[in-house]
Amino acid sequence: MSIDLATHYGGLTLRSPIVVGACPLSTDDHMRARLQAAGAGAIVLPSIFEEQVIDWTKKVGRPITYRERKLLARSERLKIRSTCTDADGYLALVKRATSQLDIPVIASMNGYAANGWLDYAGELQEADAAAIELNVHHPPVNEYSGSGQIEESIVAAIEEIDQAIAIPLFVKIERIGVSLPHLARRVCSGASGFVVYGRGPDTDICLENLKLKSMWSLTSPGSAIQLIDPIMRIHSNCPAMSIAASGGIASSEDVIKVLLAGADVAMVTSELYRSGPDVIGKLIDGLVEFMKQHQFNSINDLQLNRPIEFADEEARVHYVAALSARLSVVRPNAFGE
């Protein structure tokens, strides 16, 4: 029984639904080759940040706004550093990766607004990026009059960048302050897909100096379950929007579940650090075995068998049951204390 794993992700045709999420691993030429050989359908490069693009814009002689000057000054003052040292180096990385690989290479931009992105987005297209992933990190909620204004700024950014490029634009948006299902409908004509991710960095408080700090760690295996509900909501509200699931994809079961929920691809990142690139082959093997068991010949067959979302009454029953469940309490003396 031949299994066709080809999938469509926002205008791209991939040989498998496993995509390497944005991370520093993909800056290494040898690692990229191993990821492709393991069966990845596409690779997202680590992000180029807005501050670096503003600096590039200034160096090529184009004017920058007052806000951009402030952002650039802050970056220089705080000595912010990223995986790629500058915007020209990032373009070189995109060119090198696309010439090396047979699978799509997706560039990643991370920032607040669209103003300075337009020219650089065109440069990424010229560098042969197959698509661009825009990680929209909007300013704090209290800088807006309401969630509507946040969504308006995101819609404007997507529309401007989409008009500047001919390649697919995938949008990665933090969920605070916005309704992703409704936003998906608004930007469906401009965005080729949404990247739904599980979490951002954790905020912690240092008890020694009473200051805040931001902490990143690998996403825990099994936490991909947190993606299922938002993916189903977006897919049911806007079926035309292509979706990537990102965060906690660590097993073939995770891959299968997010695909059944409505995602077109599953992005793996943390598990690559834990298990190495060969884990991609294991994820694919498990997916193929599941498809054989259910007599699915292609990813399209799997998609046609996605479960219908909860009816309102059924969802309420599960909600009440979960909050009313009596959980067993482990008593201290059970451990001989």
TrEMBL record:
Q: Which cofactor does it need?
A: FMN
Per the UniProt entry, what species is this protein from, by scientific name?
Novipirellula caenicola
Which InterPro entries does this one have?
Aldolase_TIM, DHO_dehydrogenase, Dihydroorotate_DH_1_2
The lineage's top-level taxon is: Bacteria
Residue stretches spanning the membrane = none
Q: Which UniProt keywords apply?
A: Flavoprotein, FMN, Pyrimidine biosynthesis
What name is this protein filed under? Dihydroorotate dehydrogenase
Q: In which pathway does it act?
A: Pyrimidine metabolism; UMP biosynthesis via de novo pathway
Gene name for this UniProt entry: pyrD_3
SUPFAM superfamilies, alphabetized: FMN-linked oxidoreductases
